[in-house]
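Box S1 | Example of a co-folding query
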Amino acid sequence: MKNYLDIHPEVSEALLSGKPVVALESTVISHGLPYPENIRLAETLESIVMEEGAVPATIALANGKIKIGLDKEHLHILADPEVKVHKTSLRDLAYVLSRGIPGATTVSATMWAAREAGIKLFATGGIGGVHRDARESFDISADLQAFSRIPVVVVSAGVKSVLDIGATLEYLETQGVPVVGYKTEDFPAFFSRKSGFKTPLKAEHISGIKALVQAHFDLGLPTGILIANPVPEADALDFDFIEQIISEALSEQKQLHVKGKEITPFLLKVIAEKSKGRSLKANLALLKNNARLAAQIAVAL
Ligand code: PSU
Ligand code: MN
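Box S1 (continued) | Returned holo structure for pseudouridine-5'-monophosphate
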């Protein structure tokens, strides 16, 4: 395994000396956000993690290696709209490495790589989940399976409201995944602070999350942990406002026959256009908020 991992010297030093490290995914940079917001955001997330006293490790694939921690040049390659970057979920990992092509890791592949490198904390925007038409399409993100068997703590703003949130929560319960709301009883819906569903578990303070995470690892439980951190109030969108836009985006997706792994990037782009950038603003705010919380948890641990 070791010869596939290319750990950045700063990350490697931090891991060896027991300093806090936070993993960051790269699909959000290559496929989730437009240029140039994506590159600015990628750099800002790393600064936020450092401000909180942890070491950031953005994870991506290049030249047949799993890079744990990227230098500026690699971050720019991921963000460059001219470069074809492969959206890499767990099923694509071996393919992308064997080809030596540039790849951005989704939540599932990032969880796996973080675990291999010995990183316990990971911040993202929103995880994938059960799609609303899953009864016919069987479209359930590989992220959920990853949670069932990779013990990594993931901070996200709930799940994207384009999904079937209730079914996603049921799926996580079936797989034995703790879902913890941070300072909230309402399970957040990515762009909005509430989804209409309650968080199964709740933590009011970092210390509560820390104790839960320690117990989870002490017990040797095999699953990941999902920390649901609502988008900051100032940038949150009204649930009904964004729901209307999402249903329009979903009909466009059906009409244009957008399928498989193209669905999530397509929907995010259409929603950003239709909301005149308001969804993008919320997206950027929640990503920063999640990086900060993940770093605070990493430092506490
Ligand atoms: N949520 C976002 N932006 C993203 C993603 C999620 O707001 O870019 C990415 C994450 O990398 C997640 C992936 O793991 O989409 C899920 O893709 P799919 O739904 O195809 O499993
Ligand atoms: Mn899918």
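The chain has a mean pLDDT of 96. The chain has one domain: 5-300.
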